[in-house]
Write a structure and sequence with these properties.
The structure is a homotrimer of 294-residue chains. The first copy, chain A, has 294 residues and is of the alpha+beta class. Chain A contains 7 helices and 15 strands.
């Protein structure tokens, strides 16, 4: 798979100053023919996990050959490696190898991984700048890859793809009719919970559209939510203001309030310590604490 | 009018996660030659009225043949129709037909309206996703229209343009020297009121630059503001901090504080229940409550 | 230097309404072949100084021939001039001449300066709109320059480059082993202080990586901070949560907390009245008030 002239940028820089525009300028100066786009620049500062998630949310919707440049880099100046990888889906990602590739490595797969040799792959005259690798190294290298001026061998030496840095995580599992999963991330704008339980695993519960699911959520072992919720296809299967279990746009199980904010309503966050369990139930009220109407 | 290879996106998704980028990816994968731009993605959640207004604020500044994709869709999964329309100005808009076309229908006019036939016009392999029509249906269809891969007949069956869904609204009118209008929207960043009173109607009051206008604002019938304000051409016609009546960039009457925030200063919102009246007056103080200096 | 078909926009309009998209539409309608990008649209309202700084932060990372359109314009309608300038680096900037060019004039230099003749250079049929020069004059003129439809002579009459409007500022200076400078701007997202002291001047102190620097900050003469801080190459030279003096990405001296927010921690702002002094010191604690560990 060769690159296709498109670069998609992600960072935690925000858009209020000139940092992102400087990266764009560097890429545009490498080749004015490149097509430059954003994933997001509003990753919470230093939140590598969320950067990893936003990649899995988007990468495969772009054409193979697209180059992603992701810069969430609390360790600039440490010995974390700078890499360019090729995924099994034919996409390129240029990033610090600090966990940003966690979801992509686990769900898509990394085919090749090369360390960026900065002696070659660094913006000219930037050798006195040590704090903005996003502009000086990542945008520059991503743009040269996308423009076909270098290929992965030109990026630097090959490293084992299997040693890509990933965060530890517990896969969802089904036992005795109960799925245990975690709240992978919040759909921040709408406050929905996006779990790491895929549609196919959930299907094994035998829950049909309109059936009820017992949902319980714990944080560090403490129960913070427990109710029977209707399983629907889309939000309109329940009334405005009612809660719903559904399959989200990444085909994982989600929990939401129709036109409301589930996370804020129940003070729920995301991460491996936010555990969620699903169990088929006969209807609302079958679980003692279940009084949510829908 | 054929499409021109340009797509302009609007939504209430925000830019903090990957939703907008996934839509861009879908469009770019349809054709890498498309030019992709934003209107805004910060429409307040589910605020169809504001989505409608932002379209009328921008559509005609883009070249005819441009395709707009607007996704503010509280009713995803309900029986609201998905449509693509051609306006009398030669622009295309792909959107849920839920009121988003209100201002465009009333001020520009809808020439053709076609329902999106989802069996044909849906991102491949997205049939298990029911919650993100912005990505799976609207971005995909808008991109294919813009790239010339389909035309309106390829979108789906023709529907009567005259039955486009619009919100009810009261047109501004002049009677006995008094204009009654409504505050259509706030210029949110600056806190100016943008009314639905056009420049031509206001001209019938015979107010000249430098003259005074009696302005009164009511909300559900309660008076929340009443003052005589100077009518100026641009903000600099009054001192910093003084209020002004002026013609805004859409050639409607606006009310603002020069370098201040009129809406916040007087707790004023927007919508059909925020009524505003304009009357010619002889000067500041002629109206009993008028003590605003300028 | 001829223009290269690229326009980069900056404003204080924000991205929540349709103002920026209307500017893009005007430029795209001038020529669909133009490449359109953003610097930022989140300049604080009417903050000309910050607009000036964001230009110096980015301009030279874009290819020569790029046209910048910067619209922070509290004086729309006053006698401030509208200009297009060519910098000594070969970049074009279209802007109100109200101080926005301060840093570019001082650090890059202005080669040519032309006043925009609005009779020629104004969006067709926009003559009744007096409040949105960003759309009607600046975007339109910038796009026509970038597309090669006009050159600087076509913009309007030449004005002396030396009379470009700049804000007064005190250059940093070194005396008796003490550098006195000012906090030019905050790196808002991370809360780092970016001073106007260049790397070369700081080098004269003879401070090496790992050495300590006595840092004191005053506001209108009152001392608000005083400590000995380590001088490092990048944030990882100090522990997470520790403060550091470093060379930022514009090769000026910065002060930061590694993964923290220095400005918020110590209530520090930016501007000419925020003075900062640097002096070589033997180590932490050598200055009486110095107890910051790192």
């Amino acid at each position: 798979m060769t690159t296709n002239g498109t670069v998609v940028f992600q960072s935690d820089f925000g858009l209020v100053d000139g940092a992102v525009s400087a990266m764009y300028g560097v890429a545009n100066a490498v080749s004015p023919e490149l097509h430059l786009f954003n994933l997001t620049h509003d990753i919470p500062q230093f939140d590598i996990w969320e950067a990893s998630y936003r990649l899995i949310q988007t990468v495969e919707y772009w054409a193979p050959g697209t180059v992603f440049v992701s810069v969430v880099d609390p360790g600039v100046g440490t010995d974390r490696k700078s890499v360019a990888v090729l995924t099994d889906s034919g996409h390129y990602i240029v990033t610090p190898d600090n966990g940003t590739l966690t979801h992509v490595a686990q769900k898509i797969g990394i085919a090749r991984r090369h360390e960026i040799e900065e002696a070659e792959n660094r913006l000219q005259d930037s050798q006195h700048s040590y704090t903005f690798h996003g502009r000086d190294v990542y945008a520059y290298t991503g743009a040269r890859l996308a423009a076909g001026l270098i290929n992965l061998d030109g990026v630097g030496p090959s490293l084992p793809a299997s040693e890509t840095v990933v965060y530890p995580s517990t896969p969802p599992h089904l036992e005795n009719g109960v799925i245990e999963a975690s709240v992978d991330i919040l759909d921040v704008r709408y406050g929905s919970l996006w779990t790491n339980c895929p549609r196919d695993l959930f299907a094994e519960l035998g829950v049909k559209r309109g059936d009820y699911v017992a949902v319980s959520i714990t944080h560090h072992g403490r129960t913070v939510y427990g109710n029977d919720l209707k399983y629907g296809q889309s939000f309109s299967d329940v009334n405005v203001g009612a809660s719903i279990v559904y399959i989200n746009s990444l085909l994982n199980v989600g929990v939401a309030i129709n036109q409301g904010n589930f996370a804020r309503a129940h003070d729920i966050g995301a991460g491996t310590e936010w555990r969620i369990r699903f169990q088929k139930t006969v209807g609302p009220g079958a679980t003692p604490s279940g009084r949510e109407d829908s």
